[in-house]
Every structure is written in structure tokens, then in C-alpha cells.
Amino acid sequence: MKSLDVKVWGVRKRNTKKSSYDVRWTVAGNVFSEQFRTKGLADHYRSKLLRAAHGGEEFDTVTGLPDSMVEKAASMSWYAFALRYLAMKWPHAAPNTRNGINESLTAVTMTLLDDRPGRPPEELIRRALRNWAFVLPGPDDRELPDEIAHALHWVSKASRPLADLGDAAIARAVLDALKLKLDGTAAAAETVRRKRRTLVNALHYAVDLGEFKENPITGIRWKKPKVAGEVDPRVVANPEQARSLLTAVSYVGGYGRARGRRLVGLFACMYYGAFRPAEAVGLTAADLKLPETGWGTALLNRTRPSAGKQWTDSGETHDDRGLKNRPAEEVRLVPIPPQLVAILRRHLDTFGTAEDGRLFTNERGGVVGSSTYYRVWQEARAFALLPAAVASPLAARPYDLRHSALSTWLNAGVDPTEVAARAGNSVEVLLSRYAKCIDGRQEVVNRKIEELLREYE
Q1: In a domain, 223, yes or no
Q2: pLDDT tens for residues 295-330?
Q3: Are 156 and 120 in the same domain?
Q4: In which domain, by residue range, is 22 found?
Q5: Which of 133, 157, 318, 450 has the most CB atoms within 10 Å of its CB?
Q6: Which pLDDT band holds residue 357 (cuts at 50, 70, 90)?
């Protein structure tokens, strides 16, 4: 029997050992309730009840629910759901985010396969998922090699139901699998965190589709690997070391080929201006003011991160986008010191620009790839540093030049608000990440403690 006589009450907290929240409502005088672990989930469920009631839907007097909220059994397989989730996320995701989603969906899918006859080799299944299934256009929209088509057909039959993730033991097994690399060793904490985040987000979408009442992963008691949020002070180069490294870059490849010389300015931007590598790669002459003497400025508005052809809409290896975590039209004005001004002026005089105005190009005139400048950097470290320092974390990656710049500015006493503005970070993120790189704090604290103790001698 159906009724329009519906009243929805407010969310009520239950003060039990494990707090929960009740949503209560009546249909034709019959009282119904649902319990949730968090107030947010309870509010979300109550909102759906109110929308149905205000929309004029009739509620069942037995189940207490309108037809739109009757929970359906999860009828699709995990693999079919993953394809649907990917199609929803892909158009709005950045290329490197697409790559991460692909990697995560592949890992979960490999875990949720039954042992059916005719199983293809593991490497073939993974390749089929990574290069064909979880890339748009999807497998139904393009021709597939026979072995790939066979592998994906097998996956579609062997994939376990999406509903299985509602079983806590299965969900925990999937999460545990995310902690391991292909060789069985532990994956990096950041990698595990990224994969779990994708899985949680995917299952939020499953909730939206009505496949689950609430996300089955968020309720699992599972120890997440700890991600190091602070910069390791051992990677920070002092000004003398940084100058030696920049000089060494100019010797990479010999004078004739200029392989290293054309990238000195790129690395100098990371150290003297605290640019992110993708910001330096995308820098154009029009972005710069380079006076003959004194400070100049760089107006950052474009990045060229390495992504891979299969992840970009343009089919190019490098994405062309705005600043990281900022609206596409946002810009960042960065004052640049005389040392960097001089280096960039020399670079323009010697190498000019690419056709689109970019300062830095590879030897063929294209966008500088991360693998290219990484190789040059490793050769420069071998030239500039003693063997013990080469084996250490000191400036091991080009990105460590940015860490060195921000640490130097903070240690020089520059206002953190100004440092954060130039770096494109929030003050909170800046101070939390570079807390261990700020020298002198222990001496100040020790002195205060010593003065206090002397008062009682």
C-alpha cells in the first residue's frame, strides 16, 4: 500500500558506546528508522527522504520507502562498474590523475577476479586493463587485438560482483592488496594512499547509483601506511652547493652539444625562484621582466607536466594547463633575484625561444621531458659533489631545488606569508612541510630553557 502521508524527523544522535545517528520518519502513522555511523551519512539519507516527499512520491507503508530509494542488489560486476566509473571521471580529470585512476582500478580489478578456466597470463590481463580497458575510448569503442579482446572477455566473466565489497573480509583483502607491488614487496605509502582514495571515491559513486546504502570501505578498520608530509632536511642544498650544481649542469654533454647548457636556466628557476619543474618547463619570454640590473619578475600562468600520450586529450606527451590546484585563469607573480635575471638573459641571448615562446626546449626544439632533465641532473650531481654526497639524498631530484629555495628563504627570516605566496602554497602547508628544515629554532628554545633554569639555581 502506498501513501503520501509522510513526516521526516530530524537526525538524532544515539549516545551508545559507539555513537550512531538515527533518521526517523513516519508513513501513514507507521514509524521507520535507519542508523548511520556518521551524522553526514544520516543527513544525506534524510535529504533523500525529503526530496522524495517534496517531489510527490508515494511511500510504501511496509518498507517505508519510495520506489526511488528501494535499495537494489548490486547487479553489476566490479569490472562493469569500474568501466562506468572511469567514463564518469575521465572527461574532468587531469592527465596524471587519469593515469592514477587507471592504475588503481587495474589493481582492484586484479584482486577481484575469480579462478575461472582459461585464465590468461597475469601480465596479459594487467596489460589489457592498463592499456585498453581503463583508457578512453573504452574497449567497446575501438578495435582490439585478438589476445586483448580475449583477455578482457575473460575478465568480464571472471570479475566478482560489486556487491562483494560489502563483505568486510573481501574489502579488507582488497585494501591489503593495494599495499603490495607486483613483486610482492611493500608499495610506497603515497602510492597506497592514492589507490585507496580512488577506491573510496569510486564506491561513493556506487552509493550515488544506489548500489550501496553507504560506502563499504570507509567502515573498514584498516591501518593506512603513514605518508611523510615533511621535507627531509638532508635533501636541502645550501647556496654554495646549489651554485656548484648549476655550474656542473653546464658541463653535461660537452660544449658542442649544449645538452646541459640549455637547461641551466631551467634548474636555476627551480632554485632561485622556487618554481615547480612543470612551471619552469612552461615558462615563456612573455612571462618575464628581465631588467639589466636588479630584480625581475615572472608571471606564472602555465605548466607543462609530463603525462603520456594516452592520458592527454591532445595526444601529446605533455599536458598544457594552468597552475597546480588553481583555476585555469589564475596567475602567480614571482619576484626573481638578480642572479636568476642574469642567467635567463644569457639563456635568451644564446638559445632564443621555441616557436610558441617557451624558454626551454630539448635538443630537437620540443618540450623538455622530465626524463631528459632528470638524466642531466644526475650527471651534474656526479660532477659537482663528492662520492659520499652523490650517494646521499642531497638534491637527489630536481624538485629538491625548490625545497632548497623555500628552506633558504624561511631560514633567512622571510615572512612565511610572502614565501607561501611566491611558492603557490598555503602558509599552513608551507610550515608543516618545511618545519624540520628551519635552522636555529633549537638554539632559541635551548636558550630560553637555560635562562629559566638559572633563575632557580
Answers
A1: no
A2: 999 999 988 888 788 888 778 888 887 777 777 778
A3: yes
A4: 2-69
A5: 133
A6: very high
Residue position matching grid coordinates 631588467: 291
Instruction: Classify residue 220: in a domain, yes or no.
Output: no
What total of structural domains would you count in the chain? 3
CA dist., res. 392 & res. 389, Å (int): 5
CATH at 255 = 1.10.443.10
H or E, element range at 151:
helix 146-158
Compute the distance between CA of residue 283 and CA of residue 298 in angstroms, rounded to an integer. Answer: 9
Same domain? 44 vs 128 = no
CB 321 within 8 A of CB 94: yes
Predicted structure pTM score: 0.73
Closest CA to 227 of 191, 274, 178: 191
Q: Which tens digits make up the pLDDT trace of 77-106? A: 999 999 999 999 999 998 999 999 999 999
Residue 185's CB is within 10 A of a number of other CB atoms, namely 8
Among the candidates 33, 51, 69, a domain finishes at 69
Residue 216 lies in a domain: no
- pLDDT value of position 445: 56
Q: Which residue has the higher pLDDT, 17 or 146?
A: 146
Asked whether residue 145 falls in the same domain as residue 239, the answer is no
Show Cβ contacts of residue 298 under 8 Å, excluding neighbours closer than 6 positions: 269, 273, 275, 283, 287, 288, 289, 333, 334, 336
Distances (CA, A) of 101 to 217, 281, 283: 17, 25, 29
Please list, in sequence order, all residues whose beta carbon lies within 8 angstroms of the beta carbon of residue 166, skipping any fewer than 6 positions away. Answer: 74, 212, 216
Partnered with residue 30 across adjacent β-strands are 27
Instruction: Please give the grid coordinates belonging to residue 185.
Output: 614487496
Taking the CB of residue 297, how many other CB atoms lie within 10 A of it?
Answer: 16
Q: The C-alpha cell of 447 is what?
A: 636558550
How far, in Å, CA of 25 to CA of 60, rounded?
12
